[in-house]
Amino acid sequence: MIIVLKPGHREEDRRQLVHTLRALGLSVHESKGAKRTLIGAIGDEDVLRDLPLASMPGVEQVIPILKPYKLVGREFKPDPTVVDVAGVRVGDRAIQVIAGPCSIEDRQLLLETAHAIREAGATLLRGGAFKPRSSPYAFQGLGEKGLELLAEAREATGLPVVTELMDPRDTVLVAKYADVVQIGARNMHNFRLLKEVGNLTKPVLIKRGLAATLKEWLMSAEYVASQGNHRIILCERGIRTFETATRNTLDVSAVPLLKLETHLPVVVDPSHAAGRYDLVEPLAKAAVAAGADGLMIEVHARPEEALCDGNQSLKPDRFARVVAEVAAVARAVGRDVGERP
Ligand code: PEP
Ligand code: MN
């Protein structure tokens, strides 16, 4: 249920309403827009049957939320959400570029890559310390050592960091180092994990599941929001189709569709979609032209030595050219690239 408050309502009426809703066992989420304050009352709405909500003081209108995703839908919050990551505003006018190696492997390599991507215009540094590998024999990531290196790279460059959390048991550890906690494609359906990150105060980036519909993906975001954490970024990274020429098929239509359905920012990862470095640039441009709020691109100082996803990783000089190309597209659609705090 969405309760729209009258413009200029009394603070006392708002407080009383929130108190009444909570006392009925509903969870209450407030959205203060430029023109209106909306109160989302989520839970078993049967408890509202005997409450004359529409005639309560300060209430202008009561609207049922028809979509299954209540908090992340546009119905609840018509204005776009900007997720502020230590001053880097994801979802605002400028496109933000998240870049870095697939996995954190080595101190020198990471620092070299981090400085290079910063130079090229990236505003967030990515790198995995816990890697979801298809084979148990493949490199699994450096764990906490990797997180320490990532923190050192943040210190050296000033770039906030994005890193993946795979297991609820590592939540405290990963949240200690991460500026944005990444939920990988394979864990998009891990509801326990989603609830865990819903209790964090850090932003969460949720990648689209390998075969997830937009509705399923938005319901995963709803899991996070339902716990109170509304700082969510969605990341399209390609889906499984019959096509084998690319690692995944980038669903460009997901971007404008999500923009209609949700107020959350949407970024696109062309690296995991393509699975090959030479397709990253055109897919990145397509994503920005379609309205993406950012990109996540894998960059490695020496891709031929990478322990994970070398085929799709860009060398720093190529990455710099891609950012310049993307910036031209961004400007053509009324946006910009990489404003730093
Ligand atoms: C990654 O970002 O390195 C990764 C494993 O991505 P995904 O979860 O999209 O496969
Ligand atoms: Mn990867």
How would you portray this structure in words?
With 341 residues, this protein is α/β, with parallel strands linked by helices. It has 2 domains: 2-63, Phospho-2-dehydro-3-deoxyheptonate aldolase, domain 1 (Alpha-Beta Plaits), CATH 3.30.70.1140; 83-337, Alpha-Beta Barrel (TIM Barrel). 32% of the residues lie in helices and 19% in strands. The protein is built from 10 helices and 15 strands. The protein has helices at residues 11-23, 107-120, 144-157, 171-177, 191-198, 214-226, 254-261, 270-274, 280-289, 316-332; strands at residues 2-5, 27-32, 37-42, 59-63, 83-85, 88-90, 94-100, 124-126, 161-164, 180-183, 204-207, 232-236, 266-268, 294-298, 336-337. The strands form 3 sheets. Strands 7-8-9-10-11-12-13-14 form an 8-stranded parallel beta barrel, surrounded by 8 helices. Strands 2-3-1-4 form a 4-stranded antiparallel β-sheet, with helices on one face. Strands 5-6 form a two-stranded antiparallel ribbon. Helix 3 links the parallel strand 8 and strand 9 (161-164). Helix 2 (107-120) packs parallel to helix 3 (144-157) and helix 2 runs parallel beside helix 10 (316-332). The site of manganese (II) ion (MN) has 5 residues, from loops.
Give a summary of the structure in a few sentences:
This protein is of the alpha/beta class and 341 residues long.
Topology:
Blueprint: E1 2-5, H1 11-23, E2 27-32, E3 37-42, E4 59-63, E5 83-85, E6 88-90, E7 94-100, H2 107-120, E8 124-126, H3 144-157, E9 161-164, H4 171-177, E10 180-183, H5 191-198, E11 204-207, H6 214-226, E12 232-236, H7 254-261, E13 266-268, H8 270-274, H9 280-289, E14 294-298, H10 316-332, E15 336-337
Parallel strand pairs: 7-8, 7-14, 7-15, 8-9, 9-10, 10-11, 11-12, 12-13, 13-14
Antiparallel strand pairs: 1-3, 1-4, 2-3, 5-6
Helix pairs in contact: 2-3, 2-10, 5-6, 9-10
